[in-house]
Amino acid sequence: MHASRPRHPDPASCLTAAVERVGAPVCVGLDPVAERLPAPIRSAAGDDPVRGIEAFSRAVIEAVAPAVPCVKVQSACFERYGAAGFAVMARLIAEARALGLIVILDAKRGDIGLSTAHYAAAAVSLGAHWVTVSPYLGDEGIRPFVDAGLGAFALVRTSNPSGDAIQALPLADGRTVAEAVADEVERLAMATRGDRSGGFGAVGAVVGATRPEDAARLRARMPHAIFLVPGYGAQGAGGAEIRACFLRGITGAVVTASRSVLYAAPEAPDVRAAIHQAATALADEVTQALAVAG
Amino acid sequence: MHASRPRHPDPASCLTAAVERVGAPVCVGLDPVAERLPAPIRSAAGDDPVRGIEAFSRAVIEAVAPAVPCVKVQSACFERYGAAGFAVMARLIAEARALGLIVILDAKRGDIGLSTAHYAAAAVSLGAHWVTVSPYLGDEGIRPFVDAGLGAFALVRTSNPSGDAIQALPLADGRTVAEAVADEVERLAMATRGDRSGGFGAVGAVVGATRPEDAARLRARMPHAIFLVPGYGAQGAGGAEIRACFLRGITGAVVTASRSVLYAAPEAPDVRAAIHQAATALADEVTQALAVAG
């Protein structure tokens, strides 16, 4: 469990290469909840939520692997079930990797010192390529992930209503708090660029997709950071919001969607085919939105 | 694993009652690392780090339970070992509760929506009374923990060097970012006061102990929030830093120390006795520092 896995010295190039191979900068968010599992999977699992979540997640991973370059695994959905959930998450990540997917562990950890090093080691053991992290403790909360060979997407701007309470506050120097965090992220991105990463660093930015004017300002501040953009589809973001997060063409960001893919057609006779179709539609929609911009 | 446990509708009164019963507002931080385990425990565990950490942590819990009201369990140290570590953490928390200790799960989670609800459910399943949380996403990242019956210490001011990069930034209105977070925490503390909590809410504040003048300002801003104060002992904070975090007597804060207790005397013939002695010394030191102030 805790043995080291092969590390990717350059998480940015690893991610951008996967995006280019598939031709679509998209990611499927894996955040399964027991209550929303398709009925056949639920009954096959004997109503055991952990078994049901594992079976459903495996089906999702297999269905989306040919259509998208990466998946984002929501740690909370598995931790919810304690040690059993943790073990399921480890197996699923191994399977996603085996299918060639880049794995973003969405855990939003934020600690310092040895604790951060432990979280990084845990993410490496799980097999993640990238993780999400909180910026509130400064670069000490971020660097240990990069030192462990991982990429780290720091929360910069989230689209939830209460995020404004902190992130939108104006600083004395004219920036917002989110813009100050963005400047920290850009500094770290610059410092962690790989040889073949297209100029991107191993530190990226989570930027919610519901405010295009915010996204454009943040994009200009962080030319060396890959954006992870949640909020597409179910959370209301569309083409304009997405375009603002990219640098050129399909470069500079990864758009993630979850519910619109996972629960595309829960009553369909072939759930797997419906999910594959939804993932393909997501990839097509996003690439078309970006082509319009180009 | 995921069954609900009995909930404490008023985490603040539960914590303050424990502090009053013991007579000392202190907490022992349980953040064991395999490399620092006492040699006898390490060899008894056959050099298996997870078994060694479990045996050592159990010894610490039993040794400190008569001397302190609560323990802070560092989730990272257990997650480091995946599902096995998670199972050990669950067993240790159950044992700490059985010995009457209040358990703070130091996990610094910070997400929104269903994910936060999952993290809260995970903490309830583990048996924690309080958790630590990140404030960057606003109250949506904090409230779900309170709704699940837990207390939540939000990170307000940390004492690590890079914490300044965000927390010390001056806002246009004259506050710092940390002070703005403090105002959010006070609002939540006010809104979550229990009937027998002595005026304290279920939302508290993590305030690092190395800057007494910062601590005093934050204490004044958050009269309804219990402070969790790390950094005592090994991290350099002393009496003056501690006193600034309290409201009156031993009321208003809990001081936490880890290394100075866990590794008090690793070579001692009776490690458990040495740890008990160190926990008692911590309790005496802190209460004396506060008596000087009174």
What's the structural blueprint in terms of helices and strands?
The structure is a homodimer of 294-residue chains.
Chain A: H1 11-22, E1 26-30, H2 39-44, H3 49-64, E2 70-74, H4 75-79, H5 82-98, E3 102-109, H6 113-126, E4 130-133, H7 143-147, E5 151-157, H8 164-167, H9 177-191, E6 203-207, H10 212-221, E7 227-229, H11 239-243, E8 253-257, H12 259-262, H13 271-293
Parallel strand pairs in A: 1-2, 1-8, 2-3, 3-4, 4-5, 5-6, 6-7, 7-8
Helix pairs in contact in A: 3-5, 3-13
Residue fraction in strands of chain A: 5-15%
At the fourth level of CATH, the homologous superfamily of chain A is Aldolase class I
**In DSSP terms, counting alpha (H) and pi (I) runs of 4 or more, how many helices of chain A?**
13
Q: Which pair of chains forms the biggest interface, and how many residues does each contribute? A: A-B, 60 and 60 residues
* Domain module count of chain A: 1
Radius of gyration of chain A over alpha carbons? Answer: 18 Å
What is the element string of chain A, with H for helices and E for strands? HEHHEHHEHEHEHHEHEHEHH
What is the fold-level CATH name, i.e. the topology of chain A? TIM Barrel
* Oligomeric state as shown: homodimer
Low-confidence stretches of chain A: 1-8
What distance separates the N and C termini of chain A? 45 Å
- Identify the strand order in the major beta sheet of chain A: 1-2-3-4-5-6-7-8
Judged by helices, strands and strand pairing, the structural class of chain A is alpha/beta
Shape category of chain A? globular
Tell me how many strands of chain A there are: 8
The residue fraction in helices of chain A comes out at: 40-55%
* Mean pLDDT figure of chain A: 92
**CATH structural class of chain A:** Alpha Beta
